[in-house]
Write a structure and sequence with these properties.
mainly beta, 33% strand, disordered N terminus, Elongation Factor Tu (Ef-tu), domain 3, disordered C terminus, 164 residues, homodimer, three-stranded antiparallel sheet
Chain lengths: 164, 164
């Protein structure tokens, strides 16, 4: 399941030589549907407020796992960045120019290319959870959804009777 | 690498019958050192403020990946909950009694038992990142570290000159 490593390495980047990943195995539990069909269309980071509605389409066997999730405003979504190379320990993102350690970046290029987004829950439609705040490609494999209690409480809510 | 499923199922819980996970493979990039050696000792959720210092010990090959991470106050840490069963779509946590969908819980029992904690970065010591806010067992396999810009800005900081 390893993807071809199609990206060229940039100046300052460091690739490591490690054996094939084989410590644990993942199961895709569904697919993510977004309006983004090319990398150029993907936003740099999803917007849980104004981003487009995206769909987490679970395989039917896992659909009952969504029961109770609508009580939450937000969730952490984990997905598999199946087109990413996995051997860079230092990277030079194009927009930046400097070389930075992989774990100091949220780049999709990492030893375990697991994407993480904090999303706003819009509604559930049977085996589908509609959310906002994703930035991944259409068809991205889904790994997990976890409820999140305090993702969007950063700004204090307006007090009753106080104009905002 | 699948773990034995040692937990009994509780009333209302639903196990699904799915083929062995084989969609993608993970590479452990190190181990997490915590003071918690039994599940009973693990807090229900880590405390990034007052929790104990824990150590993310990276394999030497990945250590340069930490370069630049100390500029951040916080990080998302992903780890592998290698003792968890993976077949429950509905669960009845002991403390609660009700049955809830797996994706409406942050239980370690899930189809892909990837743990996620938002931690406070304390310091780096070569291939080791010292953090606060973890709740996992000592020896837990480490999968990924991602910088986080706004994890601990939920409470507004005290204003200069104002007693807190």
């Amino acid at each position: 399941m390893e993807q071809a490593m199609s990206d060229d390495i940039r100046t300052g980047e460091v690739a490591v030589n490690v054996p094939e990943a084989s410590d644990a195995s993942l199961r895709f539990i569904g697919r993510i549907r977004t309006p983004f069909t090319t990398r150029a269309e993907c936003p740099r980071q999803g917007d849980p407020g104004d981003g487009p509605d995206c769909r987490l389409e679970l395989d039917p066997v896992w659909a009952p796992g969504l029961d109770g999730l609508e009580a939450f405003e937000a969730a952490d979504v984990l997905y598999w960045l199946d087109r990413s190379r996995r051997d860079l320990v230092a990277q030079s993102p194009k927009s930046d120019g400097r070389t930075t350690g992989t774990f100091a970046l949220r780049s999709p290029v990492r030893p375990n290319p697991i994407g993480l987004a904090r999303v706003r829950i819009v509604r559930r439609e049977g085996p589908v959870l509609v959310v906002r705040g994703l930035d991944c490609l259409d068809g991205t494999p889904l790994l997990d959804i976890k409820p999140e209690r305090c993702a969007f409480t950063v700004q204090a809510p307006a007090k009753p009777g106080v104009a905002s």
